[in-house]
Fold this protein.
Amino acid sequence: MEQSDIERKLGTRDVAYCAFIDSIKSRIGLKILSDDELIALAFEDISHTFTQDERNYN
Amino acid sequence: MQRILILLPNNLGDVIMTLPVLAGIKKNNSQSRITFFVEDGFEGGIEKSLDCDRIYKFPRKVLRDSSLGNEWKKGISHLTEIIEDLRAQGFDSVINLSQHPYLSYIVSLLRVEDVKGGVMLKEGNLALRDPWSQYLYTIPFSRAFNRFHATDIYKKIAGVHGISESSILLTQNEKENAHKYLQNKGVAENSRLIVFQPGAAYYSKRWPVENFIALGKMLVKDGYHILITGAPSERDIGSGIFENLPDNCSLLSGELTFRETIAVTSLCEFCVTGDTALMHAASALQKKVYTVFGSTNPVETGPYGTGHIVFAGRCTTRPCFCKECKTKLCMKSILPEAVYKIISDTQPNGTNLGCDVYQTEIDQDGLYCLQPICGTNTHFFNDTGASITGRAFDQSIKALQENDDYLMYKDESEQTIAVIKKMEEKLQQYLLLKNSESIRSFELHKKELSSIKGIGEFWSALLNIRLNSVQVLDIEMGIAESCDVCIKTREQIESAFSV
């Protein structure tokens, strides 16, 4: 999958997912986050990752 | 037995750069058991390594793609299982060499006491507790004050000292397959093989194709056979060279995996490349590397080892780390004739080749350095400044004194110290009076730091990284900790100038 395709698809993410992540993000700095919340934030960060190596091996 | 988890998911070259770290850890403690967390597909450089007991392949792409559409719940469950599996390994220590935030979250979830590198606090802010990880994160804000190669900083983070030998291990089978592959390509037995790796991660790191062609013609004339390597996406670049070098040249781009390319490289005399994963692989194979550097910094990511040659283009803004450069002046200033003169050892001493040329060396302390061969009008870092920042972290490093730079950096550091003292006072005042005015004054003093240039930018970045690592929910505790951070950072700066 080309990077641009992925970026396009990211724009069509599930609304419930976006609401779920936004609600956790709004609690950052206000409370101790639970393990489940930390996992969700890790997952959200992964969802935005690309590596240069997806195009070549350098 | 100490169970150690090292995390560095990509890229291929970065993973290879950790080989001396693994070797050093094993040298320190042969009973340690190392698990290397790497993204699936990026393990090529550490496969078969005797210093790595287990490779944990992380399915990042699978997880990322599951975030699309309505598969996200499955993705989160999958990630939860991975974290539980890692937790069950019972690691004694974790070394997180990556700067990806998601790994800091994962490290936090592993609940391991001894952590080096980034860990996400339960409050949601990134914490860096160990000094050399703090140093690593400071570099991008003030590159002129760092003299250490990434591998050497990784070694320092992991507590590895001195020279640690390392190399990529290939099986007999892998070598034989590489040999057979070249036979099938029609490469004559006993050919003097060299590798050209013309592709690179992005445009600014690529030496122009016409330069590879011109150099190739000279080397073919000298009796070499050129193997052009590259990923499938680099096939066009390779073809552009191959079509202009019809004799004694083979196009391999896109035909081999990275691991197979390493095996082919092991059969060659030397490798000509930009700042690429294959450059790191070739140097880890103890093959001589001639590498051309443009927008990136050979001090930080050059070919690790002794005797490799680095060509650095001349440009006043180097290393700019631009991915797309309009002029590409740095790369263009490295002429094929200059590279050929060094390879064929035909340049008279003191010749101006139009670019800077260095030879790599691992010094007696086990640290990588670049020794100038010719040129070197522009330096990648300030020797005096780097010796001062280095000394702040390691008192065995001698600060270079008796020069104007030293006095200037001392003055900038004293200005920084004076501001930090004022910050300390305001935090202490808050702890006594509990008034918000003290915090406002603290913030104003903190802003003053940005007006101090030069080495002040290094200290300021360091202090901010540490302040950002403080937990924030318990205000009093956070302020007491911030005060402690200011005091320790100030004392550390002062120690850099102690005799």
